[in-house]
Design brief:
Elements lengths: L2 H13 L3 H14 L5 H9 L15 H12 L3 H11 L2 H10 L13 H13 L5 H14 L3 H12 L8 H13 L5 H11 L2 H11 L1 H5 L13 E4 L3 H7 L4 E6 L3 E8 L4 E5 L11 H10 L4 E12 L4 E2 L2 H4 L1 H4 L3 H7 L2 E11 L2 E2 L5 H11 L6 E3 L2 E4 L2 H13 L4 E5 L10 E9 L10 E9 L12 E8 L4 E8 L5 H12 L2 E2 L6 E2 L6 E3 L4 E5 L2 E5 L12 E5 L2 E6 L11 H19 L1
Parallel strand pairs: 1-12, 7-9, 15-17
Antiparallel strand pairs: 2-10, 2-11, 3-4, 3-5, 5-6, 5-7, 7-8, 11-12, 13-14, 13-18, 13-19, 14-15, 16-18, 19-22, 20-21
Helix pairs in contact: 1-2, 1-9, 2-10, 3-12, 4-5, 4-6, 4-8, 5-6, 6-9, 7-8, 10-12, 14-20
The structure holds adenosine monophosphate (AMP).
Adenosine monophosphate binds next to strand 2.
Length: about 600
């Protein structure tokens, strides 16, 4: 299909205000694509060139893109910059400048979607000496022959800021509608996606082989699996009741989740984060240990990477563990504060997928292949048959400086990409505060007044993720507790993702000074969850929604969580019910 047509659909997507409309537009767009184009079309719509775990980043620097626009249109760099400043969006500036181009168009060529995609791929993967000039030239050639509207999206895509606001679930629903005319096939598609974490691959298999192609998805080495997530319950009694009287109880380590893929034959190791980004270079000691300490030819194991002192048995706080992500000098850090991997699951072993095997069998095998000395250790666990046992184990975990426990149903499969009661977490509770922190998505921000005017930052509008509706709902404004440094940082990063109007997947009754693309997650502590007529979290019809009382930020932006990893509406409602119960217990 022609890129011109893709661009016109992107324009339609930008203009809609509801997710359902989005699904319909996407379905139509997908209908137009040829089978062999599907993969590229899906990636492009996601604003990426390949799945995140392959690490092909687009994101050209603004200056280079400006230079390309100048070359393509005959305007000076200063003129390009002026238009950019005026509009605040380089895509729109390019659209305008291409429409007023000073150069004669050499051909009336129309681009195929694949040509645009392939050029973008080439730009992203060109490196080394002279690569900047080469990138500018490639992009300029594309822009010189494109229409104004095409230029808008080519420029945004090249900057890595396409921002169509389409989430994974929206794409899956559109794909489902494409083949069945309905949304009900979504679950099977989701299943395939959970196994391979690659929407382009799923879409391609669907286009080429139909529903059959989707049923054949298998776990593959070096293709990360979307992680299983835990539900939460507040008491040992409730956990055991849900688990029918017996379950495994593991220590909950507060580090970074790591999925380790290892193949001895090729000596290849890859480590993926919870968001399935490639973490291998960040964890050299774990990569090395994976080759030396796992007793298997090939395996995929999952665990929590955390700074741990073997001698004293101390666990370092999360913030120290993730310094690794921010600081340079990974080598020195790995000497100074070596990480350990506490392995808690096994997804693949010597050519065989383990997702469908029961937990107890996966754990048994895990115990066989991990020698439990050195860098990779087994997550500690017991089998509990009474609330008392569970409670005691929980208290011991807290005493050791751990976060709490994760209870696991002995006969459950590994449920990739979903939050289910086969894993239940229970965390330490702080008196007078919510028993747990919540992870919120930043939806907008406010300008500062008074002393804060200097920073042009007055606070955040935050929301939770409604999984069922695949939208973000507001839950709180946060205006206090920011350090000066934080205010500067928030202002800087949020300015880059400002959008002109409320994104289609955001449901809100309030208007912040600026909306932003739902992208960043922050961890927030609060005193209480209250019912709220203002916020849309959990709001049904005329009934009130839910809000946080006295919210405050803990730490900075959680780079390990994507917006869909934020606390969900359902979790907030469950936490609200738990809180009510706790209050009743206190009063009685
Ligand atoms: P939370 O991030 O609070 O939703 O808790 C879930 C996270 O706990 C997982 O994503 C893991 O990173 C982490 N975790 C730590 N220990 C375990 C364990 N034994 N089993 C499962 N998850 C664990």
């Amino acid at each position: 299909m022609l890129f011109e047509e893709v661009a016109s659909y992107y324009q339609k997507l930008e203009a809609v205000s509801s997710r359902l409309e989005m699904i319909d537009i996407l379905t139509e767009l997908f209908k137009k694509a040829k089978k062999e184009e599907m993969k590229k079309l899906v990636y492009m719509t996601q604003g990426i060139l390949s799945p995140p775990f392959e690490g092909v980043e687009i994101g050209m620097a603004e200056k280079l893109v400006e230079a390309s626009i100048a070359t393509a249109t005959g305007f000076s760099k200063e003129e390009v910059e002026k238009e950019f400043k005026k509009r605040g969006d380089l895509g729109e500036a390019a659209e305008y400048l291409v429409s007023k181009t000073k150069l004669k168009r050499l051909s009336s060529k129309k681009f195929e979607l694949s040509e645009v995609f392939d050029t973008m791929y080439k730009i992203a993967t060109t490196s080394g000496e002279g690569s900047q000039e080469a990138k500018i030239k490639m992009l300029a050639e594309l822009l010189a022959a494109s229409s104004p509207l095409e230029a808008r999206y080519i420029v945004r895509f090249s900057l890595g800021t396409l921002r169509l606001g389409v989430g994974d679930a929206t794409i899956l629903e559109a794909l489902s509608k494409l083949v069945t005319g309905e949304r009900k096939f979504k679950e099977q598609l989701e299943n395939a996606y959970n196994i391979c974490s690659d929407l382009g691959k799923v879409a391609e298999a669907l286009a080429k082989e139909g529903i059959k192609g989707i049923e054949n998805f298998k776990v593959e080495l070096f293709s990360p699996i979307r992680p299983a997530l835990a539900e939460r319950l507040p008491t040992a009694e409730e956990i055991l009741e849900r688990m029918h009287g017996k379950c495994a109880v593991e220590s909950k380590y507060d580090g970074l989740r790591a999925q380790v893929h290892v193949d001895k034959k090729s000596k290849r190791v890859e480590i993926f984060s919870r968001r399935l980004e490639r973490l291998t270079p960040m964890f050299p000691e774990i990569a090395k240990a994976a080759l030396e300490e796992i007793d298997a030819e090939s395996a995929i194991i999952e665990g929590e990477a955390i700074a741990y002192n073997e001698v004293t048995g101390e666990f370092h706080p999360f913030q120290e563990t993730i310094q690794r992500k921010r600081k340079h000098g990974v080598e020195e850090m790995s000497q100074e504060l070596p990480l350990h991997l506490f392995a808690f699951d096994l997804m693949y072993l010597d050519g065989e997928g383990y997702l469908d095997k029961p937990y107890h069998e996966r754990r048994e095998k895990l115990e066989k292949i991990i020698k439990n000395k050195g860098t990779i250790l087994l997550a500690d666990r017991i089998i509990a048959t009474s609330p008392k046992e569970l409670e005691k184990y929980f208290e011991e975990a807290i005493e050791k400086g751990l976060e709490g426990i994760v209870a696991k149903e002995l006969n459950s499969k590994y449920i990739a990409g979903a939050r289910k009661f086969s894993w239940i977490k229970m965390k330490r509770s702080y008196k007078g505060e919510l028993s747990d922190t919540v992870d919120l998505v930043i939806l907008g921000y406010y300008l500062g007044k008074g002393v804060r005017a200097e920073f042009k930052f007055g606070g955040l509008l935050c929301g939770v993720y409604n999984e069922k509706k695949d939208v973000f709902e507001t839950i709180t404004k946060i205006g206090t507790g920011f350090s000066e440094e934080q205010m500067k940082e928030f202002k800087e990063v949020l300015d880059k993702i400002k959008v002109k109007s409320k994104p289609a997947r955001v449901v809100s009754n309030i208007e912040p000074d600026f909306w932003v693309e739902p992208k960043y997650v922050v961890t927030v502590k609060a005193d209480e969850i209250t019912r709220s007529p203002t916020h849309t979290c959990g709001k049904e019809g005329d009934e009130s929604g839910y809000a946080l009382r006295f919210p405050r930020i803990v730490g900075g932006i959680r780079s390990d969580k994507s917006p869909e990893d934020a606390t969900t509406t359902k979790e907030i409602i469950e936490m609200f019910k738990m809180q009510k119960k706790e209050k009743l217990q206190e009063e009685s």
